[in-house]
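Protocol step 4 of 6.
Sequence for SAM domain-containing protein (Cirrhinus molitorella) entered exactly as in the expression construct, tag removed. Do not edit the line below.
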Amino acid sequence: MTFLSGAAVLLLRGLVISAVLGLESSYTSQLSNRVTPEPAAAAAAAVVAPTDPCLTVIPPCMNEADRFSLEALRHIHKQLDDDNDGGIEVNESVEFIIEDMKQHQTNKHSNLHREDQHITVEELWRGWKISEVHNWTLEDAVQWLKESVELPQYEKNFRDFKVDGNTLPRIAANEPSFMSMQLKILDQRHKQKLNLKALDAVLFGPPLRPHHHWLKDFVLMISIIIGVGGCWFAYIQNKSSKVHISQMMKDLESLQNAEQSLIELQSRLEKAQEENRTVAVEKQNLEQKMRDEINGAKREASRLRELREGAECELSRLKYAEEELVQ
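Step 5 output, structure tokens:
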């Protein structure tokens, strides 16, 4: 049974190699119709080395971008395979996540391994070909650059080179010539950030979008309602305070007017009291004067009566009686 299965695998690989050779020859003929290559390049394209890595993987490389991606994945696999046994174990993935990618231990390694605890280059390639990131378009890659990597200043570089999902392994492998010469990224910090983010996307899938937290939305809505209610209450209180202040100002003005009227009335009362005292003094003086005049008149009448009674002639008595009557 083992021999038959091995023969079946060899037969299947032969068919795949034939198909790849046919595709390569057609692709080469199309390129020759468009651009006339140099003699050395034409000879290299016509002869495919039997040890070409693209012929030993399934699915095979379909174009030059696949070749670069495969080479980048081989480099990444070698980087993760610490013991060089040809496979990536779970502990190697965890160690790579914590030490090289500077991330806390999460379940990311389960996204890479799934049921396979020993990942070879071919398995890494197959997983990459069916991954979501592999099928990213240019717009998806630009969006990833702006939102996940947070380096929007390189959007023009990505668009000029037409970076798509199949190009990310080259960024993840941190190819010096590709990063510096073609993408024109010279800042080492930006290179490192792009490298780590691309590794994360290539190995563990697209970055997760933040979950929608309904509780936060509810708390935010309650906070907005409380804020609006507080503003409305403050507005009502401000308006009521203005009305109260206006009423107090009117009352204060009325009080000031009443106080002024009271002061004027008190002044008039004091003036009337002063006039009353003056009149009383004048009245007393007048009464005293009248009493003095009455007393003087009485004394004069008494004197005239005495003179009249002591007068000897009638004429004198009549004269004194007349003067007494006048008094």
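Step 6, annotate. The chain has a mean pLDDT of 77.
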